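Worked example

This section walks through a single chain of length 286. The input is the sequence exactly as stored; nothing has been trimmed or padded.
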Amino acid sequence: MQTVLKRRARKQAGKALMYLLLIAVGILMIYPLIWLLFASFKPNEEIFGSASLLPKNPVLDSYSAGWKGSGQFTFGTFLWNTFLLVVPTVLLTLLSSVLVAYGFARFRFPGHKILFGLMISTMMLPNAVVIIPRYILYNKFGLLNSYHPFYLPAALACYPFFIFMLIQFFRGLPKDLDESAKIDGCNSFTILVRILLPLAKPALFSAAIFQFVWTWNDFFNSLIYVSSVSKYPVSLGLRMSLDSADAAHWNQIFAMSIVSILPCVLLFFTAQKYFVEGVATSGIKG
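Given that input, the structure is written out below as C-alpha cells.
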C-alpha cells in the first residue's frame, strides 16, 4: 500500500513539475507581447529609461492617436488594405492548392512523378532568387503598385508547401470513399467537393492560417511591389510612421502593433482545433 502511495506521489510531483516548467516556458515566450502591451501606455522616456514593466505615467491616448496617424491616411486605411491583400490571397491559395493536390493524390498521368518532383524542388528556391525575375515580369505586364503580384501566384498554385501538405492529407483518405461515390454516380469533381473537402477541413484550416499569417506579416514583397501610400498594408504603414516625424511616438507605434497582430491571434485561437488536427493527422482516424 505504501509503495502504491509513493508511486502516486511521485507521479503527481512529476506532473506538477512538468506543469510548472510549461508555465515558465509559456511566460517566457509571451513576455515580449506583455511588454509590448504595457509599453504602448508608456511615454518615450519610460520606454527607453526604465526597466519597469508597468507604466508610471500612463499615456491613455496612444491607441486613438496612433489610429488617427500623422499623415493623410489613418491606420484604418492600412488595416483595410491588408485585408484586401490577404483574404483573396488566402482564398486563391486554397482553391488552386486543393485542385493541384487532388490531381497528384488521386490521378496517375504521363509525367506524374517528374512534375511532382519539379513541384517539390521549387520549395528549395529562396525568395531572393525569384524576386528579380518576378519583378521584371510584373513590370512588363503593368501589374506593379497593385495586389496582383500576390493574387497571381496564389491563383496559379505557386505555393508548393501547401500543395504537398494537402497531397499527404488526401493520400491518407481511403480510396474506398471515391469508389463508393462513383457507384452512386459522382464524378471526380463531385467527389472532391462533397466527399474529400469536408474531410480535409483540418488541412484546409492549417493552410489558411499559415498563408494568412505569412502574407499579413510580409514586409519585403509589399515593399517591392506596392509603392503608393494609399495601398500600403500595415507592415509598411507601421514602418512609415517611423519616418513621419523626427521624434517617433513609440507608444503609438506599439499600440498599432498590438492592433495589427490581433487578427492573426484571433484567427489562430478560433481555428486552433482544426489547426492542431491538420498538423498532427494525415487522414481519417479509426
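What to look for: The chain has a mean pLDDT of 88.
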